[in-house]
Design a protein that fits this description.
Elements lengths: L1 H35 L4 H10 L7 E4 L2 E4 L4 H11 L2 H10 L5 H18 L13 H11 L10 H15 L5 E3 L8 E3 L3 E6 L4 H4 L2 H8 L5 E6 L6 H14 L3 E5 L1
Parallel strand pairs: 5-6, 6-7
Antiparallel strand pairs: 1-2, 3-4, 4-5
Length: about 250
């Protein structure tokens, strides 16, 4: 009886994990579709061309190769398969396409799915699931400076004021020194501001990730005035996100 219970329990857990993964994947795909529908056709083409080149107009069947006229449906299908929700969100916000309402719905539904499959867990999840961390990310995405800054000091001073105004119960400190992050929230979240951002600036971020994550649970890197080859930037951000899941990159 004990062995049978163990076997059925393990099978149930595998089934629940699969169901949870399928629900989360469906939720992400639905959110991607909602965001893409806010793009004009030229914006959709530009997005797809930037991330991989876009769908091919060439098709082939038993009669040979032929060309088709690409529509918004073709570009949307390409984007759904090739571009992550995180990348799409950043692209939309950089191009002044409002998606904060869609992302709030996504975060709320993702939380409900997690709670449904893990009702026994009352411990706040760290990293990307941490509520404070997610709220800080959302707040920084909504931040737009009052003017164009040509140095980090002015930018992160205004950013710090914005964060403090939204998290009055949290301790928001401005730290100084080359080995310290620019802003710290409640001793657990570090914020590093970089800009104007050039290729050499991006190369320093990995070192900061290595050092800061020894002392803080999460790190948010805010990049402004980015002037970097897009292919290099895409390769760089993929490497950072794959290696440091505790890090959120926000391009302003």
């Amino acid at each position: 009886m004990g062995l049978w219970d163990a076997v059925t329990g393990a099978a149930r857990k595998i089934s629940d994990n699969l169901s949870e993964s399928m629900e989360l994947e469906r939720l992400e795909n639905d959110s991607v579709k909602k965001i893409l529908r806010r793009f004009s056709f030229p914006q959709l083409k530009k997005l797809c061309q930037r991330f991989g080149g876009g769908p091919s107009p060439s098709r082939e069947d038993y009669t040979g190769r032929y060309r088709i006229r690409l529509t918004s449906d073709h570009y949307e299908a390409y984007a759904i398969n090739q571009i992550s929700l995180k990348t799409l969100r950043e692209w939309a916000e950089n191009n002044k396409i409002r998606v904060d309402d869609i992302m709030r719905e996504y975060d709320d539904e993702k939380k409900r799915i997690k709670e449904r499959y893990h009702p026994e867990s009352n411990v706040r999840m760290k990293n990307s699931e941490d509520e404070l961390f997610q709220n800080v990310i959302e707040t920084i995405h909504q931040f737009y400076p009052s003017r164009k800054y040509h140095n980090e000091q002015g930018y992160h001073t205004e950013l710090q004021g914005w964060v403090k105004a939204h998290f009055r119960q949290a301790t928001v400190e401005h730290l100084t020194g080359s080995s310290r992050p620019d802003i710290v929230i409640d001793t657990s979240i570090a914020i590093e501001v970089k800009g104007p951002t050039r290729t050499e600036d991006l190369k320093t971020i990995a070192d900061k990730c290595n050092r800061y994550l020894q002392y803080y649970d999460n790190l948010i890197v805010v990049l402004f005035e980015v002037d970097v080859n897009e292919r290099f930037y895409n390769e760089w951000i993929k490497g950072i996100c794959d290696r440091y899941p505790e890090v959120e990159i926000i391009r302003k």
